[in-house]
Amino acid sequence: MIETKGLIKTIGDKMILRGINLSIEKGETVAILGPNGAGKSTVLKILGGLVKASSGEVKIAGLDMKKDSYDSKRKIGFLAHNSFLYDHLTPLENLKFFGKLYGVQDVEERAKKLIDEVGLSFFMHDPVRSFSRGMIQRIAIARAIIHDPEILLFDEPHTGLDQQAIQLLNKVILRMKQEGATIIMVTHDFGQALETCDRFVIIKNGKVVDDLQNIEKNLEAITEKYMEQVASL
């Protein structure tokens, strides 16, 4: 479903990514872990088509990101640090706008269903500018999945959420996973990743240093392995 080969990204004389090779199957949920500055978010932005790699290949569902950028991006839902919402619009207006961009059928019904799923039906007609950071994140989650994407890219999705919102997000992730979506999540929250992800890819200094299966769902073991890899470099 997602494959990268020799992914390199340089900015000026600084090398951010140093030959990232990833292979992620359809339906997998993968957490990308690593210290600050490791290149995690850069990988996600390249996969989402927001940033161009300096060299290397990216394939999304067999499509070359360079040659088939438009078709590739239509398959992707991206949740970044920036919500990409219009703050003068309501949640319903925002979701209808983005849904129409993707050609979503029955867009208003779909938007209302997602607003309810993220627990904000009561605020459906209020402008987003009046929302807290956590509420904005909830609507941004709905925006990312309005077109029912095959691939979800989440950049630290649990940041700024309270416990109820975290549970809602995890419920959405697990539902999308059950429906066959492929999910990549950059996160520092090992506990939430443990609950939702099948694999842990550890990146340090722009390179993949480990790729672990989440078979036992053992937080202590994952944390120990992470610290071992990070400290060894």
UniProtKB/TrEMBL annotation:
InterPro entries: AAA+_ATPase, ABC_transporter-like_ATP-bd, ABC_Transporter_VariousFunc, ABC_transptr_haem_export_CcmA, P-loop_NTPase. The keyword Transport applies. Residues 2-230 form the ABC transporter domain. The keyword Coiled coil applies. Keywords: ATP-binding, Coiled coil, Cytochrome c-type biogenesis, Nucleotide-binding, Transport. It comes from the Bacteria. One of its GO terms (molecular function) is ATP binding. SUPFAM superfamilies: P-loop containing nucleoside triphosphate hydrolases. One of its GO terms (biological process) is cytochrome complex assembly. CDD domains: ABC_DR_subfamily_A. Residues 205-232 form a coiled coil. NCBIfam families: ccmA. This is Heme ABC exporter, ATP-binding protein CcmA. It comes from Anaerobacillus alkalilacustris.
